[in-house]
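REVIEWER CHECKLIST
Item 1: Sequence provided? yes
Item 2: Single chain? yes
Item 3: Sequence as submitted:
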Amino acid sequence: MIKSIVNKLANAAGYHISKLQRPSEPTASVEKVTKPEAKRPDPKDYTTTTVPMEVPCQKETYYFVLNNYVSPTSKVLDVGAGLGYGMAILSVKAKEVHGIDIDKKSNAYAEQEYIGRNPKIKSIKYFDGYAVPYKDSSFDVVTCVDVIEHVEDYNRFIDELLRVSRGVVIFSTPNRRVEFTNPDGTPRNYWHLREWSHKELDEILSKHQAKVDWFLIDGPFEGPFKIRKKVSKYTLVLLPVLHKNRLGVRG
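Item 4: Structure as written out by the authors:
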């Protein structure tokens, strides 16, 4: 019964965990099979309010950012803030936190939950998925947790987040694993336009104007988790940190 509930919640959050507890094979590349392109999901149709829940590995990402990159003087932007609990975690140490999301329903939910109740959470705004409504270099820390896999033009999106950062941009996204991938190479999660392996995402990020530090989250959907620097068969989440002002060096 408990396992069934966990599976249902994980799948709603975008993590298929039928084999997560005991992975039997390491991360592997999946060759795409050419076929007529199916109609892609519209990210604007997705809402985190369908099954409101706090996703354990997302919380792990926010705590990682809080403990390693946020200071009492930090101005933070959470891109794809969803229900807002990530902003609440970041506000524990940050000077101020702002959130944006394409999901108007989740924005309304987060506003009701946090605006006027948590004095460090200053604003929650709608954006179109690309144009971030802030000036260049507005934030010390920009977080983007389980969002980029939903974005069609991800290179444009990465550059836009770097534009509004004066420090770091931190992404998290599901690690592409065989057991979460259809035979044609597409994600089993309908709402994900694509998922990447560590190597694939690293190649994409290397083309942008930032130094990339790599971290990974290992563990089952519900935890416990370990932060790693090398990929293993237990890697659940890719967690790259982009340093805007440290160019030309790979770490």
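Item 5: Key structural point noted by reviewer: The longest strand covers residues 165-174.
Item 6: Recommendation: ____
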